[in-house]
Design brief:
Helix 4 packs across helix 5. The protein contains six helices and six strands, in the order H-E-H-E-H-E-E-H-H-H-E-E. The protein has helices at 8-13, 27-39, 70-73, 91-97, 99-108, 115-121; strands at residues 17-21, 55-59, 75-79, 86-90, 124-126, 140-141.
């Protein structure tokens, strides 16, 4: 039995565009399923060392929900590279200012921390509203699994 290993050209030609509505989805569950599709693990021809994933468009990224006290406890840090330049925001503050960065960072934590992971993250597009500029790519709606615990 032979093992199927895709080349870069074969993987690039089979990419699709998916649109995900984040309304009333739990952040971690949403991010893990997005990461699976970005990596290409949903395909039978998945090759771990080739970027064979699809493009993902996330809309309504400001309407997700989180469990527990995460809105007030989770902090997002950034540094200006100057002494004393560490800044932080709570998830609630980040949700008011830049909600797309919350989903982007959640998915980023679930892909490999390598060149391949950085290439996969370039295929993620996140928008706060219901509109996106990728109508020409004719994205399909990606139905996420319903939670077993709700």
């Amino acid at each position: 039995m032979k093992t199927l290993s895709l080349s870069y050209e074969e993987a690039k030609s089979g990419r699709e565009w998916w649109v995900v509505d984040a309304t009333d989805k739990t952040l971690g569950r949403l991010a893990s399923e997005i990461a699976q599709v970005l990596r290409g693990k949903h395909k039978p021809s998945f090759t771990p060392n080739v970027d064979c994933g699809d493009f993902i468009i996330v809309i309504n990224c400001d309407k997700f929900h989180v469990t527990g006290n995460r809105l007030d406890d989770k902090r997002y840090y950034r540094h200006s590279r100057y002494p004393g330049g560490l800044k932080s925001r709570t998830m609630r503050e980040q949700l008011e200012r830049q909600p797309q960065k919350i989903i982007f960072e959640a998915v980023k934590g679930m892909v490999p921390k390598t060149r391949l992971g950085r290439a996969q993250m370039k295929k993620l597009r996140v928008y706060a509203g219901p509109d996106h500029p990728h109508k020409a790519q004719k994205p399909k709606v990606l139905e996420l699994q319903e939670s077993r615990y709700e």
